């Protein structure tokens, strides 16, 4: 089956999908994106992703020119045409194509809209979660607005590649004060011996993950509160993470993924922790799924 992508108003075979070399995302990384999980053919937490997209656009003064309703239709069309049961839909919106100039193009320049969907194996993802992953730490060398979900991801790409070359899955980024900000493509969490679940507070220093937002709701639910679990938004150091009972990462592609080692240091028993696995199992019970 040939894959179908959406490019500026048309559904085209993925292999023929192309954008202009004048597109500002190509020239300046002047664009924003979202990645939404598809689970059982439904879009998970679509509304939160579309809200964040609008926020990213506002922060960059990018006129979206497309309503959320139209984007929802494109997503469904891509899920259907590509017969995706489990996977992800990727959406990118750019400031459009115009003669290369750092200054914004004239108003009314159509924005560039590209979207595609692909399948991912649920079984493989579950197997990875039950094995756990390792992370390495690296300096956070990103710009000062990683809270905006832009396609400008070069430091993230370099970090993820370095992690891979070190035999790890993810890189946790460390700010100038020695605190963990987040992963190169995920939010970072630890579970302290007290049962306190800790993640960095939302600020311009991190992307406010949709999965992160959903986890706050889950942890507050009585079934987790009854286990004595609570969540705190505060900074933690690498040493605190290495001394934690558990660690995990969250994101639309990783969901809740247990971290079993940081810079070669075992976390807890060195096996995926019960809190991370329980949160992973709860995620799809709480997150709205829309078709
Ligand atoms: N932080 C970064 C840098 C990311 O790239 C991502 C996802 O791509 C996340 C956090 C997690 O965000 P979400 O849960 O919305 O996927």
Describe the protein in words.
The chain has 291 residues and is of the alpha+beta class. It is 30% helix and 29% strand. It has nine helices and 16 strands. The strands form two sheets. Strands 7, 8, 9, 10, 11, 12, 13, 14 and 15 form a nine-stranded mixed beta sheet that branches. The protein has a seven-stranded antiparallel beta sheet with strand order 2-1-6-5-3-4-16. A hairpin with a 2-residue loop joins strand 1 (4-7) and strand 2. The longest helix has 14 residues, at 46-59. It is globular, with a radius of gyration of 19 Å. It starts with a strand and ends with a strand. The model has no long low-confidence stretch (mean pLDDT 97). The protein binds pyridoxal-5'-phosphate. Pyridoxal-5'-phosphate binds next to helix 6 and strand 13.
Estimate the helix proportion, in percent. Answer: 25-40%
The biggest sheet, with number of strands, parallel, antiparallel or mixed sense and barrel status, is: 9 strands, mixed
Which small compounds were modeled alongside the protein?
pyridoxal-5'-phosphate
Please identify the structural class as seen in this structure: alpha+beta
Distance from N terminus to C terminus (CA atoms, Å) equals 22 Å
């Amino acid at each position: 089956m040939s894959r179908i992508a959406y490019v500026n108003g048309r559904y085209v075979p993925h292999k023929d999908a192309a954008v202009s070399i004048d597109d500002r995302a190509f020239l300046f990384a002047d664009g924003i994106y979202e990645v939404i999980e598809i689970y059982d053919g439904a879009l998970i937490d679509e509304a939160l992703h579309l809200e964040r997209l609008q926020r990213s656009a506002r922060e960059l003064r990018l006129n979206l020119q497309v309503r959320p309703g139209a984007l929802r239709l494109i997503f469904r069309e891509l899920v259907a045409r590509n017969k995706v049961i489990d996977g992800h839909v990727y959406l990118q919106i750019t400031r459009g194509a115009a003669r290369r100039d750092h200054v914004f193009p004239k108003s009314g320049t159509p924005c560039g809209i590209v979207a595609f969907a692909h399948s991912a194996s649920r079984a493989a993802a579950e197997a990875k979660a039950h094995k756990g992953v390792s992370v390495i730490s690296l300096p956070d060398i990103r710009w000062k607005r990683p809270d905006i979900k832009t396609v400008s991801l070069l430091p993230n790409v370099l970090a993820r590649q370095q992690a891979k070359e070190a035999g790890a899955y993810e890189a946790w980024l460390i700010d100038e004060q020695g605190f963990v900000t987040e992963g190169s493509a995920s939010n970072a969490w630890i579970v302290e011996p007290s049962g306190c679940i800790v993640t960095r507070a939302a600020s311009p220093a991190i992307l406010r993950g949709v999965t992160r937002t959903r986890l706050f709701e889950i942890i507050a639910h009585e079934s987790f509160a009854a286990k004595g679990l609570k969540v705190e938004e505060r900074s933690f150091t690498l040493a605190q993470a290495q001394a934690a009972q558990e660690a995990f990462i969250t994101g639309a592609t990783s969901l809740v993924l247990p971290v079993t080692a940081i810079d070669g240091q075992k976390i807890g028993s060195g096996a995926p922790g019960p809190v991370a696995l329980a949160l992973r199992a709860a995620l799809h019970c709480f997150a709205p799924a829309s078709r």
